[in-house]
Amino acid sequence: MVYKFAAICGLAFLPASSAEVDPLAIIRRSLDRDTMNFRRGREYTYQQQVVTRNLGPDGQVKKTESSTYDFVTLGDELYSKLIAKDGKPLTGKEAKDAERKFEETLRKRNQESPAARAKRLERRRKEEEEGRRFLQEIPEAFTFELLGEEVRDGSQVWVIAAEPRPGYRPKAKRADLLKKFRGRIWIDKQEYQWVRVEAETIDTVSFGLVLARLGKGAAITFEQKRVNDEIWLPSRATAQLNARVGLVKSFRISSEVTWSGYRKFQSDSRIVSVEELAEPARK
Question: What is the value of pTM for the model shown?
């Protein structure tokens, strides 16, 4: 879902009393708003760029790779197609390979039997439900402190610190991971939307059966922005981490993911840009 990854220079800090506003109530309300984003987000297509930097022991960049994808919803599924590598358009051969993979994925989906489709949709429904349950664990997993208010991108936001709650017992799948993070959350005061999240691991975090692990001190940020005056969608995520795969292979990585070019489907299935949607209002 994800899964749901920092400088704050130049922002005006405005003190606020935690007695005036309940940070836990703010968090709960913001999570309800996030559910609406999830539903409406299916109506949008976008581009995603993933930049990965492999770092040496001294923190210097040893290698940088980037990939850019187009994401579009067709029918009931989200599809992606590679459109650029390392900041450059694909070569003729690379473009043909990307198109072939995309068409092959569509062909397999179109040939899907009713039983296979029902099974796939049920699996996706369960995964989405697990993701929602994971997020709903957040109010129980942390203690929250209202640190104050800031002006961010012209809007007033609350700044809330989150620390693991002693004695927390996770109920949702994978929610035990929450016990190994602390962080801060910036929430828009008017719309109760998460503007920015900064998280840090306070213990080793393990994933899956391949013994992939994030070391203590890994830093993650995640940002959202308002799109088309109706929805908040991801704009940027970063991660600075020391990781280990298996028993011997370890590495340091700096990664950045950006989302851009959000466009909305209309009822006639034509894709339009956010700028096009805004044109009637300007006329």
Answer: 0.81
